[in-house]
Amino acid sequence: MITKNFLRVGSGVALALTAFGCNNDKLTSLNTNPNSPEDVPNGPLFTNATRVTVARWWGGIDLRTYEWAVQQLSEIQYTDEDRYVRMHAADTEGSFNGAYSGELKDLAQIITKAEAAKDPGTYAPSLAMRTLGFSYVTDSWGDVPYSAALQGDVVGSTLSPAYDKQQDIYTDFFATLDKAAKDLVGAANTLGSADPIYAGNPAKWQKFINSLRARLAMRVVNVDAALANTQLTAAINGAGGLILTNADNANFPWPGDGVYNNPWSGNLGARDDWRMSNRLIDLLNSLNDPRLAIYAQPTQADPTKYAGSPNGISNTKAVPLFNTTSRPGTVFYAGKTTYGPVFGGTGQRLPTFVLSAAEVNFILAEAAERGMGGLTPAQAAGYYTAGVTASLQQWSAVAATAQQISAAAITSYLAQPSVVYQGGVAGLRQIAQQRWIALYTDGGNAWAEWRRTCIPTTVVAGVDATLTTVPRRLEYATLENTVNAASVSAAVSDQGADNLTTRLWWDKNPTAAPTYPGASCGVQNGT
């Protein structure tokens, strides 16, 4: 599986070294460093690039930045990130720099080789993963190096790539995904076990590509409704269909071997800094939501109670809440923690949910309510119900027996007046709210959706935050301002000031969102 693919390259190098023996005729070959092979097979490279993509956007930066911006988690001690003190360039540039020098570069190498070899079974999934990774980059920073990026080792290429406008990046996303989906028609499975998500299955990758296209199409709806409708229609009608059932979900399966573990599990088990945000806990409590017992643990002080901590409060205010607020659910923990208590036991192997049927059904529900993609408002309730059901079943499948959600519990939940689909603008708010709940652990995606819809409206800057509003983007890397200053300056001229509150291209017309509550969106209000 995944670990074997990582080890295969190193084993091959070791065997090659022993083959040289003491033959002087082969000494010249030692001028090549065997520990830095000039060419790595596409399979292991794809495995690792996929793993690093997931670990980066659903791991490190998610628990350092995204979760505080979207307010599904909060900090109970060392609250600097939750107050946006540590959300500046020096704090987030590792993810920016690492993505370009790491997995995006590796995927570009795979794409070049697979295209030359006329291997769509490898080429198209790599295009999809590159687009996925770049979508998190541009949705976090805005204008970024794209068309001239990842070419530092190409003779004659620039080492100071220009920053593409986000609008142009999205235009290329759609063209790339269109090509990838079409290239997979009739393609052979050439990745096989090197693909940790779909085992190289071209039909599954077609669904992923169309579903990612639908996600990105809806993201631009406030700024270019015509483009959104065109791309959504293409995604819905694309060859292979969409991810509409959990059997087709894009899940990353962590081995849980102590080396390659679910990134939430590793972080939560090593430090007791995180609690559930009261924004999420209060909402789940108000809806009698059965996901509550999976998402969170009861408080240490009262095992019958779930309670969240406010976001953006000082250490002085947070520490007294240590035992009276809920930790994330036991499903994320891998047994005994480094700080004492024992929770769960299987968290290291918890899969990461990359793109789910729940999300796709919510996209279609919104499209139907808005009359987009060839759908009609009469179809919205069906997709909404399917989305809620898929999310409940998705989380139940990874929960401990006592926390699993029965069919009867799902029926009961869907029958509540607060959950029954209402239609119109109220229905769009329900869709956005349920999508926000379902995207738990995918903070970057949830943050982008919150910026687009401003749902939940309870997400506002905390009382002790250093900003009066929830961040809208991240600042450019410090290194970029040093080695690529002219390109950064041009991007700032196009996009706006390089700070946390500048709106991205797709975020510049918030009043176009039917769910937009007004200028109060995200603004500090004392809660």
How would you describe the overall organization of this protein?
This protein is mostly helical and 527 residues long. The chain has 3 domains: 7-31, no CATH class; 42-253 and 351-512, Serine Threonine Protein Phosphatase 5, Tetratricopeptide repeat; 263-280 and 291-347, no CATH class. It has 19 helices and 8 strands. It has helices at 2-20, 42-70, 89-101, 103-116, 120-141, 166-183, 202-219, 225-237, 263-270, 278-286, 292-295, 315-318, 357-369, 380-396, 407-415, 424-438, 443-453, 478-483, 485-495; strands at 73-75, 144-145, 163-164, 250-252, 274-276, 334-336, 342-344, 352-355. Strands 1-5 form a two-stranded antiparallel sheet. It has a two-stranded antiparallel sheet with strand order 2-3. Helix 2 (42-70) runs parallel beside helix 5 and helix 4 packs antiparallel against helix 5 (120-141). The longest helix is centred in the N-terminal third of the chain and has 29 residues, at 42-70.
CATH architecture of the largest domain: Alpha Horseshoe
Query: What is the count of distinct domains?
Result: 3
Look at the helices and sheets and give the structural class.
mainly alpha
Radius of gyration: 23 Å
| Mean pLDDT reading | 92
What is the N-to-C order of secondary-structure elements (H for helix, E for strand)?
A: HHEHHHEEHHHEHEHHHEEEHHHHHHH
- By CATH, the topology of the largest domain is Serine Threonine Protein Phosphatase 5, Tetratricopeptide repeat
CATH structural class of the largest domain: Mainly Alpha
**What portion of residues belong to β-strands?**
under 5%
In this structure, how is the largest beta sheet organized?
A: 2 strands, antiparallel
Q: Kindly report how far apart the N and C termini lie.
A: 47 Å
Task: Note poorly predicted spans.
Answer: 1-28
Number of helices: 19
The strand order across the widest sheet is 1-5
Q: How would you describe the shape?
A: globular
Number of strands: 8
Can you give the helix content as a percent range?
40-55%
